[in-house]
Design a protein that fits this description.
The chain is mainly alpha-helical. Helices cover about 45% and strands about 10% of the residues. The chain has six helices and two strands, in the order H-H-H-H-E-E-H-H. Strands 1-2 form a two-stranded antiparallel ribbon. Strand 1 (about 65-70) and strand 2 (about 75-80) form a beta hairpin. The longest helix is centred in the first third of the chain and has 16 residues, at about 10-25.
Length: about 130
């Protein structure tokens, strides 16, 4: 079977996918990435939120910060400032907004909608 560049048939896909799936499921993301680097293959793991939270480099940098959430009466782990620079201490100023908390500021103040238009959007479930 001769295929042109960038062409794949359904039959070929059905033959290739099962063994590739079996191979991928037998290895961790780290093992696959290390093997790809060794073999000079372009492959990079997609990080889940848990992967990011448990990332050794981010933890070592103190990237994550525990912030007291007043409504939940507990601490929440938040990502810290995007950059660290000497002489420029950055810190979290407030917790993340609740869903819709800044809608009036965005839709009315920034985008120019009226409060009535925003209310209609809210009633329609659009915002």
């Amino acid at each position: 079977m001769k295929l042109g560049y960038g062409t794949i048939t359904k039959e070929l896909l059905e033959r290739v996918v099962p063994p590739v799936e079996r191979f991928l499921l037998c290895h961790t993301k780290a093992e696959l990435f290390e093997g790809a680097v060794t073999r000079r293959i372009l492959l990079f793991p997609v990080a889940t939120p848990r992967d990011i939270l448990e990332n050794a480099q981010l933890r070592a940098r103190g990237y994550f910060q525990e912030v007291m959430h007043p409504e939940l009466a507990t601490t929440i782990t938040y990502p810290g400032p995007f950059v660290r620079a000497s002489g420029v201490p950055l810190s979290l100023r407030r917790i993340a907004p609740k869903l819709g908390e800044h809608n009036a500021e965005v839709y009315v103040d920034e985008l120019g909608l009226t409060r009535e238009e925003l209310a209609r959007l809210r009633e329609a479930g659009a915002v």
